[in-house]
Design a protein that fits this description.
The chain folds into two domains: about 120 residues, 3-Layer(aba) Sandwich (Rossmann fold), CATH 3.40.50; about 100 residues, Arc Repressor Mutant, subunit A, CATH 1.10.10.10. About 40% of the residues lie in helices and about 20% in strands. It contains eight helices and eleven strands. The strands form three sheets. The protein has a five-stranded parallel β-sheet with strand order 2-1-3-4-5, with helices on both faces. Helix 1 links the parallel strand 1 and strand 2. It is elongated and about 70 Å long.
């Protein structure tokens, strides 16, 4: 869950934005001025700031400059969300912000931009490990150690999370069936084997077996996977 501060002086846009952000799983809070943002910042530093440009008092560009010049906040993600859409404004804004969205906009575009930006930021903050895969369950994506991304199914998504939660342990057929919400009466181990076979092929590198089978016991993940929740 990312903590997001939305600085917007239009109360309708602010309320709608907070609703979309919180419904998407973020911890979002609103401010209608630089002073209110400072109050929020004194409580807790956010992961990302959404900035309108035309604000009462200090404008959005001033705020972005202040955030970038402060060692404590210089690495915050900043997105301009503004009606100013000239090329000069966009160029000026992107000198300080990570993204620039012009009003009117679709909230789905805003949410997608936030997810992509937070994901890139999270990846860069992780110490490089040539043997570790990254798993983004909300996007159903696996990122290989070489950076290549793979799309996975919802069932594969569930299985990977189950393996990571039971790292180093054998995951039984019963536990897998429960996670997949299978009926224990009609549960077919062959379906699980087929699912694990497909997942094994996606995770396979250097001819190493990424998922080991234990007869009549279950499966164990033999590859390092780190879950990244956004």
């Amino acid at each position: 869950m990312a903590r997001i501060y939305f600085v917007e002086d239009n109360p309708i846009l602010l309320n709608n934005g907070l609703l979309w952000l919180n419904n998407d799983g973020h911890d979002a809070h609103g401010a209608n001025s630089y002073e209110e943002l400072l109050t929020l910042m004194s409580i807790q530093r956010p992961d990302l700031v959404l900035l309108d440009w035309n604000l009462p008092g200090e404008d959005g560009l001033f705020i972005a400059n202040k955030l970038r010049s402060d060692p404590e906040t210089k690495n915050l993600c900043i997105i301009f969300v503004t009606a100013r859409n000239s090329i000069n404004d966009k160029v000026s804004g992107l000198e300080k912000a990570d993204a620039y969205i012009a009003k009117p906009f679709d909230y789905r575009e805003l949410l997608a931009t936030i997810r992509a930006l937070l994901r890139r930021t999270t990846i860069h903050s992780i110490s490089p490990d040539e043997n570790t895969w990254l798993h983004f369950p909300q996007q159903r994506i696996l990122r290989r150690p070489d950076g290549h991304e793979l799309d996975i199914t919802e069932k594969e998504n569930i299985i990977i999370q189950l393996f990571v939660q039971n790292a180093g342990k054998i995951v039984s057929h019963e536990l897998i069936s429960q996670a997949l919400n299978e009926n224990p009466v009609t549960y077919d181990k062959n379906r699980t084997e087929a699912l694990l076979s497909r997942l094994r092929n996606k995770l396979k590198t250097d001819n190493k077996n990424p998922i080991r089978s234990f007869r009549n016991k279950g499966y164990q993940l033999m590859t390092n996977v780190k879950i990244i929740n956004e």
